[in-house]
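yo, Glucosidase II subunit alpha is done. seq:
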Amino acid sequence: MITGRLLILVLLVNFTRCDIYKSCSEVTFCSKFRNYPATRSEYFTAEIGEVNEDKMTNILTLPLSNEKDVKLELQVSFLSNFTARLRITEVNRKRYELKEVLDHEPHAVKYDITQQTNHKLRIHPHGLHDASIIISRGAPFSLELAYKTHTRINFDSSQLVFESAEEGEAFSFNVGFQGSTNLYGLHHHADRMTLRETVEADSDPYRLKNVDAGQYQTNSTKSLYGAVPVIYGHSKKSTSGIFLHNAAQQWVDITYKEKLKPSARFIVEGGTLDLFLFFGPSFKDVVRQYVDLTGRMHMPQLWTLGYHQCRYSYLTQDDVKEVVTKMEEYDFPMDAIWLDIDYTDGKKYFTWNPQNYSDPVGLQKYLASMNKRLITIIDPHIKVDSDYPVYVGGQGKYFVKWENGSDFQGTKYYIVSNV
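structure:
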């Protein structure tokens, strides 16, 4: 007979084997690229003699090629907030490009070329000689971001690999942070603040994939709810940073093996290589440069900062009242209570269960009398039901679609839904 403790252990092991907890070795594109030894024939050369300057867009473009006849295009530009933008695209191949993440489409500013030979190109924002980008021909070519003659970020193209159209859309690249002692960022992991070394045999890269993890491991590089591909390289003297404008699944290996040059290797499932480089030079400057791109958070209302009681799930309004009353009785500082899907009528959002939540207005007044707030969860899955106005209104118009144009349907809480 299985004892209670053993049964719990078996269940936990089974739980952590599901898809959201996969390791790099269990994900095809990650396993392939992490163990991929790029050869010299795959190293890219920057054809500096063929540089193209577009004075209308303030974008400098030059071709990249290797001995396997893979052709890429490198675009470099400077933004007004002490930031550089690096885009690498494949010639004659279209990839998905994000439109929703940036607060606005960044405007490239004028630049000057201060050095150009057959082997090296140096450019800087017009009027700002302290900041520059240096591109060396290679192979492999290199791109350095420098501030006051010191290299801060090095784009290492020896790890620049793109899958062919027949193989898929994955790609990888490596970025070194010259002069930094620690790396931070890749938020939404249950791990320490300083990014850990991950290239050891028993380690896994940081995984960036939005998952709904009911349980999670601590001190882990596994995914949680969010994925933020931003990294800060920091030392006592300066800070620099990068942001990969890409929402695909990513795995990031961190290493500190080279003194004062920690590096991050990105392995990305698809999309475009659209990389923002932050000059800093202070940590505050880098954060400002990052949020200039993605937008600043509004200051939260005071009540949102307190304790929120939330669980799955309160079946009736009487259950809610009882919890709140007990909180008051024991003088527990709670500001809000959340309701999961059971408050709805048949799991249809924007409705109330007529039996179990028959008086939602009265419930809110009761909570308000004790200075408590009521929050109802509304997820993006909409129940397929011809008597449900929200479903009928979105049908064929607003839901995610299959390639053939029909509405995508999935299952959530054992009901067929659109999203």
